[in-house]
Amino acid sequence: TIALYAGNTNSFKVPAGSIVNYVVTRHADGAIDVVFTGELAPVPAIEEAFYVIGQVDGKDWSPYDGVQMLVNNDDPNIFSIDITTEAKGEDEYAYIGFTGKLADAEIADENEAWASIADHRYGAVAEGDFLLTEELIGQEIDFVKGGQTIKLEPGFWNVIVDLNKKKVTFFQREGNPLDVNHDGYVNVGDVNVILNAILEEVYDPALDVNADGYVNVGDVNVILAYINEHA
After folding, report:
1. Strand-pair partners of 84
2. Residue 82 and residue 120: Cα distance in Å, rounded?
3. How far is it, in rounded angstroms, from Cα 103 to Cα 99?
4. pLDDT band at 51 (very low <50, low <70, confident <90, very high)
5. Is 207 strand, coil or helix?
């Protein structure tokens, strides 16, 4: 039940293709509300997948390679990931970008490869490279197709992209979230911690490294992929 107010001209927005019925009721005290029933159509995905590219998780700028973000279970246009950024240039910042598509490895010319994903590149709203300052950490930042590269401090970050709202949010983390046994390294010791939790059927959010709501082989695979990439 949703209350209605005189003078409020905001619209109700539902996914295209939804079948919706509604009943508006005026109560004896003058209050008005509306009840919607029916079936909402699935929210269409703006991008089939989403990647962080640039100086992230041991990688460098390449149209062929990136770190794939996790899609939200309830909304295909919200993505999240924990990343490690590294400064590889002449200054102290790391530089990253975002794309909904990686270039096909069969495109040998790198300039052509970049051109092939240009329509899927995203970034911050700015005239040049966008500097993520301390006061912007945890704040929603305007985020659009064709936006600018984001430069930020090297370190550990949780990143959330909402393509519906055209926003990106960065949260700074202490230590690598894949280092679940807190020994300063991501290695087989962390895999063993998760395997033990699986065997004991224990759920610990700190071990749910892919943030899918479960501690299972998916979390093991995330750590193994990280170890392989940084071997």
Report:
1. 156
2. 21
3. 10
4. very high
5. helix
pLDDT tens, 56-68?
A: 988 899 999 999 9
Buried b (16+ CB within 10 A) or exposed e, 105-136: eebeeeeebbebbeebbbbbeeeeebebeeee
Helix (H) or strand (E) holding 122: strand 121-124
**In Å, what is the CA distance from 44 to each residue of 14, 58, 109, 202?**
11, 33, 33, 35
Q: 188-199 pLDDT, tens per residue?
A: 999 999 999 999
CA distances (Å), 152 to each of 48, 74, 98, 132, 134, in order? Answer: 26, 29, 14, 5, 9
Separation between Cα atoms, residue 18 and residue 13, nearest integer Å: 10
Interatomic CA distance for residues 112 and 101, integer angstroms: 14
Dihedral (CA of 163, 87, 172, 49) sign: positive
44-59 as b/e, with b when 16 or more CB fall inside 10 Å? eeebebbbbbbbbbeb
Inter-residue contact 181 to 159 (CB < 8 Å): no
